[in-house]
Design brief:
4-stranded antiparallel beta sheet; ubiquitin binding; WD40_repeat_dom_sf; 1 helix; 1% helix; Methylamine Dehydrogenase, Chain H; WD repeat; repeat; WD40_PAC1; Thrombin, subunit H
């Protein structure tokens, strides 16, 4: 069974996984017990998140649904129909953002999860690969296969702060943005891509804070730990160049840990000028 997504319970005692077998499993880490199936869809589960404020697990699937689960029950608390296949989701309670096929970005207020709060067409021209809710719940990031990231604010009065920028490109070569992760302390964020690189950015000053050296394979997923002292990322072949370019002898899957220095992830002070 191929795993496509995972999520940690907020207390670090439990991890959840979902994948091509259409099931989500709960793995109790402290007791050493066997994994338990806690969610089922009609198609692969591609993303999931724990919602500490509601004590629920939310799962998104290619079956065009979101499902909310109380892991003590066998049936979902609520099933939300989506306009198309789920590709990515992100939660910063009470904000939930879902990216689907056909460039839909659906926003939910988890205080009323059965009703869409807003639906937005992605500012990016091509397929959505990942989304990340702002830490302050005021908007979200979206990354796509075109090597570009969009910064979107939900408040209509903040629309002048929306922008897109290019990343994970090398001359005429364009690579997918596979992961977006906000730093839990500084509010800056990381992008990781099929070019095997990851970068740190400050959206408020529109600056790249640090360019990191590349892996020899794509980075397919990444995450900061609870205090941002560790940035973990996985490197493996991502099939973006097809089966004909897959070499089992060299395509080794690896997990790397990077210890960010403060200068790499802390926002730089803004320079203001006064008129005399």
């Amino acid at each position: 069974m191929k795993v496509l997504c995972s999520a940690w319970k907020d207390d670090g005692t439990t991890v959840f996984s979902g994948g091509c077998d259409k099931q989500a499993k709960m793995w109790p880490l402290l007791s050493g017990g066997q994994p338990v199936t806690v969610a089922v869809h009609d198609a692969p589960i591609v993303d999931m998140a724990c919602i500490p404020g509601m004590n629920l697990l939310v799962t998104g699937s290619w079956d065009k649904t979101l499902k909310y689960w109380d892991t003590r029950q066998q049936t979902p608390v609520h099933t939300q129909q989506l306009p198309d296949k789920c590709y990515s989701l992100s939660v910063k309670h009470p904000l939930l953002v879902v990216g689907t096929a056909d460039r839909n970005l659906i926003v939910f207020n988890l205080q009323n999860p059965q009703t869409e709060f807003k639906r937005v067409v992605s500012p990016l021209k091509y397929q959505t690969r990942c989304v990340a809710a702002f830490p302050d719940q005021q908007g979200f990031l979206v990354g796509s296969i075109e090597g570009r990231v969009g910064v979107h604010h939900l408040d209509g009065s903040q629309q002048d702060k929306n922008f897109t920028f290019k990343c994970h490109r090398d001359g005429n070569d364009i690579y997918s943005v596979n992961a977006l992760n906000f730093h839990p302390v500084h509010g800056t964020f990381a992008t990781a891509g099929s070019d095997g690189a990851f970068h740190f950015w400050d959206k408020d000053s529109k600056q790249r804070l640090k360019v990191m050296s590349r892996c020899n394979q794509p980075i397919t997923c990444s995450s900061f730990n609870h205090d941002g002292s560790i940035y973990a990322y996985a490197s493996c072949y991502d099939w973006s160049k097809g089966a004909e370019n897959h070499n089992p002898a060299t395509a080794k899957s690896s997990i790397f840990l990077h210890l960010p220095e403060e200068s790499e992830v802390k926002a730089k002070p803004r320079v203001t000028t006064s008129k005399k």
